[in-house]
Amino acid sequence: MRKVYSMQALPSHVRRNMIMLVGNYVAFGVGLAFFSSNTVMPVFLRYLTSSNPLIGLITALQSVGWLTTQLVAARWIHNKPRRKPYLIYFSLGAPAAYTVLALALFGIPADRNALLLGVFVLCVLVAALVDGLIGVPWLDFFGRAVPASVRGRLMGVEELLFAICSIGVGAIVAYYLSPSAPAFPLNFAWLAVFAAVAYWVALVFFLPLYEPADPNPSSEAQPSWSEYLPLLRHILGTDRHFVVWMAVRVLGGFFGLALPFFVLYATRELGLPASLTGAFLSAQVIGSAVGSLVLGYVYDRRGSRLIIRVVLVISAGVLAAALLAPLLRHAGPLLQAFFVLIFFFLGISASSTAGFFIGHMNFIIDYAPPAQRPLYIGLSNTLAGPVSFASILGGLILQVSSYSVLFIVTLAFILAALLLSARLPEPKRALKRETAPA
After folding, report:
1. Extents of the domains making up the chain
2. How many C-alpha atoms does 138 have within 13 Å on its Cβ side?
3. Can you tell me the distance from the alpha carbon of 324 to that of 339, in angstroms, rounded to the nearest whole number?
4. pLDDT mean over 196-213
5. How sure is the predictor about 436, in pLDDT bands with cuts at 50, 70 and 90?
6. Is 179 helix (H, G, I), strand (E, B) or coil?
7. pTM (global) more than 0.85
8. Rounded-to-5 percentages of helix, strand, coil across the chain
9. pLDDT tens digits, 91-104
10. Phi first, then psi: what are they for 344, rounded to 5°?
11. How many CB atoms lie within 10 A of CB 25?
């Protein structure tokens, strides 16, 4: 029988883990924000290339790397009793990569576009691939270490603290992208320094974690790939609810078609100043914080299915608002405020941490059998991996058509996901039945 805890009744080691996990999440998120793939990266890449498909490809590397290595990680930890060592070792990837990137940006001349681009891609890809190996053990650890009855509120606190920190990040980014900042690439070199420091701090928060005993320890040998792949096919062939959820997740993931291009749409198509990028970033993070607090509260009481559906509705609304934005092209400050509001709701969209973790990741943590949770997590993230290339397709669509066509195509995918989500079960109901007194 699972125990149901209130915040006040949590054991001391659980409270300590929650504090450390919040610190790790906030510090890691700050690192991501300093070189955000949705805001800062597209501006950096525009200095080096005018190719929209190439910008889409490179901004997708973070997601692609994170998702595509997870089946390897799931098989690797299948019979391992501990997750903490993997969390620590693999957490070295991002801080090391961004430290190298900062040094390279300080040392490479601004006119060496090809070299700058090559070093940047290499560093981002290494960080993403190593971070991907963390994904399965981190989510499995999170599911074991934090009771489901308080998990949503914990995520809300994480996002709130992240938002507070990111207001400062947004101000720093705004300065380093302004005309008064050091010249390119030194302005981005300093952003890489700040990102690297944040990633090193995130690693430190992993060190004091207490790892609870595995309630279902496995004595099986690590399966070979010839044994492992049939397990994956069996899940896909027999677990209908998992397949429906994967379809909803993949369709919703096509929000990535448009995601990297909102900032370019605002600054290049509609003429808003690039210095507003910091305000966009802050608005997006604040939206994620507010959304996470509300969605986390709702998850603790209603479960993840409702969260997934609400986030899809918000995503559709964001795309509709972007399509209407040209009507305010000559409205000056009103257009700026309108786009800040769009970025606020981007923080609660299908590609946000609020939507992804509180909705989809809680769904699979609650739905998967505990002994097979790493397998389900690894399989789901690997299957969703190719959707990370949606931004490349978005760049191609933009290259041959327009922003309006891009937003309409993306909206069609989101509406399809919303319709299919009506067939999802609510896995938390099963957890409530397990915790009900006999």
Report:
1. 9-211+223-435
2. 22
3. 11
4. 86
5. very low
6. coil
7. no
8. 80, 0, 20
9. 888 899 999 999 99
10. -60, -50
11. 23
Residue 286: in which H helix or E strand, if any?
helix 277-302
Q: Which two tokens stand for residue 127?
A: 């960080």
pLDDT value of residue 2: 44
pLDDT at position 240 is 92
User: What is the three-class DSSP state of 211?
Assistant: coil
- Alpha carbons 150 and 124: distance in angstroms, whole number: 34
Q: Which of 19, 60, 29 is nearest to 289 (CA)?
A: 29
Q: Phi and psi of 399, rounded to 5°?
A: -65, -35
Q: Are 75 and 228 in contact (CB under 8 A)?
A: yes
Among left, alpha and beta (phi > 0; psi -120 to 50; other), residue 178 is beta
- In angstroms, the CA 117 to CA 44 distance is 10
Give per-residue pLDDT as tens, 65-98.
666 677 676 666 666 667 777 778 878 888 999 9
| Amino acid 434: pLDDT | 47
What does the pLDDT read at residue 248? Answer: 96
Q: Kindly state the helix (H) or strand (E) to which residue 26 belongs, with its residue range.
A: helix 12-34
- Environment class of 398 (CB within 10 Å of its CB; exposed 0-12, middle 13-18, buried 19+): buried
Residue 116 — φ and ψ, nearest 5°? -60, -45
**Two structure tokens written together for 267:** 């600054």
User: Residue 96 has which token pair?
Assistant: 């090391």
In the structure encoding, which two tokens stand for residue 303, read together?
Answer: 């479960």
Longest dimension (CA), the chain: 72
More confident residue, 263 or 138: 263
- The single residue listed with the structure tokens 């501990």 is 82
Cβ within 8 Å of residue 424, ≥6 positions away = 241, 244, 245, 248, 305, 308, 363
User: What CATH fold (topology level) applies to the domain 9-211+223-435?
Assistant: Growth Hormone; Chain: A; (1.20.1250)
The long-range contacts involving 221-227, CB below 8 angstroms and separated by at least 24 positions, are: 221/79, 222/75, 222/76, 222/78, 222/79, 223/75, 223/78, 225/75
Distance of CA 300 to the CA centre of its chain: 21
Exposure on the CB side of residue 318, measured as CA atoms within 13 A: 29
CA 324 to chain centre: 27
Q: What is the DSSP string of 396-436?
A: HHHHHS-HHHHHHHHHHHHHHHHHHGGG---HHHHHHHHHS
